[in-house]
Specification:
By secondary structure, this protein is an alpha+beta fold. The chain is about 60% helix and about 10% strand. The strands form 2 sheets. Strands 2, 3, 4, 5, 6 and 7 form a 6-stranded antiparallel β-sheet that branches. Strands 1-10-9-8 form a 4-stranded antiparallel β-sheet. A hairpin with a 2-residue loop joins strand 2 (about 520-525) and strand 3 (about 525-540). Helix 5 (about 105-125) packs antiparallel against helix 6 and helix 8 packs antiparallel against helix 9 (about 215-245). Keywords: Cell inner membrane, Cell membrane, Cytochrome c-type biogenesis, Membrane, Signal, Transmembrane, Transmembrane helix.
């Protein structure tokens, strides 16, 4: 099995390289044919090189899928002839966790990454109807090259090493003890690899000089799909962290968490640049389309090289230089093409008026890029300072709160007002009339929240969320069949409600203390009384369980059972918090320490407002993204085209060149 897996990975690398060469030859031929056509229609039938590229791309996917099937069969059967299986799996694990063990350590996670990349490349084999043949072939060549590169990287850190090889550290028990392990990493990897398509389209469009509105539509479609997948992956990861780690939070601004946030921010900015109702800013579009994958590769380097310290990071490996080389190559290719085509990109239309929808979108993408830069600096600066000066510095939530809060408030205001602006220059009187009803509703919400909760920041953010809700309602009433527009407003509403939940969560109460049986911990008006404390043995772990009675004032709320778990030789300890979910708050109890002999336990009691609303807002955001991606249809059922296709895409590309 070790030899078969290695052969399949080597075959995938060779097939990916062959496909890249074939697609590149096809792109060059299409460009020459377009130049020779001089305005006449050229053949759109696949050429020999295109057929070869498509075939080898699909065969590369088959080779990768074969390797994945081999390792999964070994994991399910617990075939310890592979050292990776012996390290990450166990014969007593449920089948679900044996399957998800594939991506619980460095080598297998790279194989999953390779599989997702190969799937994306194979899906792109069929040319989107809006894309010119030359641009499609060039982008397909880039995707095939990425398959070859990641196949080589996976070979370097192969999960098919035979038994007896030196083993790295075993995965955390957390990766073998929660159902989110089977969902969170695949969603993130699918979103990451989907962002390879905008990068490939940017490189292909620059190389063949086929940038334009049809190109932007394809970029938008793939970016929206990646954005939805990334949003779902990030939210599931945040919920997983909140539900099992016992610290009571869902986002710690950890460098590896930020590695998924930065591509999401860039994808959000790109969606606001290549949307159907925006004036195409080609320089912004190409730069953001390429930056998404570059940031993904940066996150891969940070996660798998040991450069940063993180509870999420994989152990230090020899892959650091290899991944850094991949990152550098992808960045240099993009920058070289941007410099070479700078005159083409500089030919965009002039900047839109400030008081217009285009002006709001321009400000939006600038601010999103600024937020990305702040997160990038906060994630990488400690590692840079440690490498240069040997000093350890920490960049945590307080720094991000100070630097990003003002920008986030402005972004929220733009999200509320921007969609109501006219596409071109806005007349102030007409704007005031249009903003009147939503502004009145926002003022009402601000006043009510300000009275109920005397906090200016929460009242202001709630008012902006009310403004977004009023705008969404107005749009839905006036244009009930505009599914894409409604989806955008639903996503905006979800983000606005999420902002309210985040700010409200800062008004929670937390208390931590050691109490005997019968003792109580109080947070605000909520108390947690330790009723009993027991310890038991389970397969592969020891568990201490506390029975805790919750009460609000004199009113009992019920009993919860937080746990403390020791794994292996008891060197690894994880908390199992108990969470009472209520409509407007969560009561979160963590067992931090236990001494059954003495009858004492250390409890942390946290009461956090509006956590349920946070998860609901994330669901709304994802649903809005899905709705925005559903193509509109005519009454007869045929897909609607926003603009008619060019009679000869190749001739148009040649004229532009």
């Amino acid at each position: 099995m070790s030899a078969a897996g290695t052969v399949l990975l080597a075959a995938a690398a060779l097939l990916g390289l062959t496909a890249a060469v074939a697609w590149a030859r096809a792109a060059a031929g299409r460009v020459r044919a377009a130049a020779d056509a001089t305005g006449t229609t050229t053949s759109e039938r696949p050429t020999t090189f295109e057929r070869a590229g498509a075939t080898t791309t699909v065969l590369a996917l088959a080779a990768v899928a074969g390797a994945v099937v081999l390792i999964e069969v070994a994991l399910v059967r617990h075939d310890t002839s592979l050292s990776y299986v012996d390290r990450v799996s166990d014969a007593t694990l449920p089948v679900y966790y044996r399957i998800s063990a594939l991506w619980s350590a460095l080598e297998g996670s790279l194989l999953l990454w390779l599989l997702a990349t190969a799937v994306v490349a194979a899906l792109f084999v069929r040319r989107p109807r809006d894309l010119t043949p030359a641009g499609h072939c060039a982008a397909a060549a880039v995707l095939a090259a990425l398959v070859a590169v990641f196949a080589v990287v996976t070979l370097v850190a192969s999960p098919f090493g035979p038994a007896g090889m030196a083993d790295a550290a075993r995965p955390s028990p957390l990766l073998r003890d929660h159902a989110a392990m089977g969902v969170h990493p695949p969603l993130l990897y699918a979103g990451f690899t989907a962002l390879a398509v905008p990068y490939a389209l940017a490189v292909g469009g620059l190389a063949t000089r086929t940038l334009g509105r049809p190109w932007a539509r394809v970029v938008h479609a793939w970016t929206l799909g990646a954005w939805v997948l990334l949003s779902a992956g990030i939210v599931v990861g945040a919920w997983w962290s909140y539900a099992v780690l016992g610290w009571g939070g869902y986002w710690a601004w950890d460098p590896v968490e930020n590695a998924s946030l930065m591509p999401w921010l860039v994808a959000t900015a790109l969606l606001h640049t290549v949307g159907a109702r925006t004036t195409l800013a080609r320089g912004w579009a190409v730069g953001l389309a390429g930056a998404g994958l570059v940031l993904v590769l940066l996150g891969t380097f940070l996660t798998r090289s040991g450069v940063v310290e993180s509870v999420h990071a994989f152990s230090t490996s020899t892959l650091g230089p290899v991944l850094l080389g991949v990152l550098g190559l992808a960045t240099m290719v993009l920058l070289a093409l941007l410099v070479r085509r700078r005159r083409d990109l500089a030919a965009d239309a002039p900047a839109p008026p400030v008081l217009s929808r285009g002006g709001a979108l321009q400000a939006n993408r600038v601010l999103l890029v600024l937020v990305t830069a702040v997160v990038l600096v906060g994630s990488c600066l400690p590692a840079v300072i440690d490498a240069v000066a040997g000093d350890r510095v920490s960049v945590g939530p307080p720094w991000y709160a100070r630097t990003l809060t003002p920008v986030a408030v402005v972004l929220l205001a733009l999200m509320a007002v921007g969609p109501l602006l006219a596409a071109r220059r806005e007349e102030p009187r007409a704007l005031l009339a249009r903003l009147g009803p939503p502004a009145a509703f926002a003022a009402l919400v601000t006043g009510v929240v300000g009275i109920l909760v005397p906090d200016l920041s929460l009242a202001a953010v709630s008012g902006l969320a009310g403004f977004v809700l009023a705008s969404a309602t107005r749009h839905g009433v006036r244009r009930p069949r505009d599914r894409r527009g409604i989806g955008v407003f639903v996503a905006h509403l979800g983000i606005a409600l999420g902002a309210v939940a985040v700010v409200a969560g800062g008004h929670g109460a937390t208390t931590e203390t050691t109490v005997p049986v019968g003792g109580a911990v109080r947070a605000g008006e909520t108390t947690a009384t330790l009723v009993s404390l027991d310890r038991r043995e389970e397969p592969h772990r020891d568990v201490a369980e506390a029975r805790v009675l919750l009460a609000e004032g004199e009113t009992p709320l019920g009993t919860v059972r937080p746990e403390l778990r020791w794994y292996g030789d008891q060197s690894t300890m994880l908390a199992g918090p108990a969470i009472r979910v209520e409509p407007f708050r969560d009561v979160y109890v963590t067992l931090l320490g236990a001494d059954p002999a003495a009858g004492t336990a250390t409890l942390r009691l946290a009461v956090t407002p509006m956590i349920t609303w946070l998860w609901a807002s994330a669901f709304l955001t994802i649903v809005g993204g899905v709705l925005a991606g559903v193509p509109a249809r005519r009454r007869g059922g045929a897909p609607r085209r926003e603009t008619a296709p060019e009679r000869s895409p190749l001739a148009a590309a040649a004229r532009e060149a």
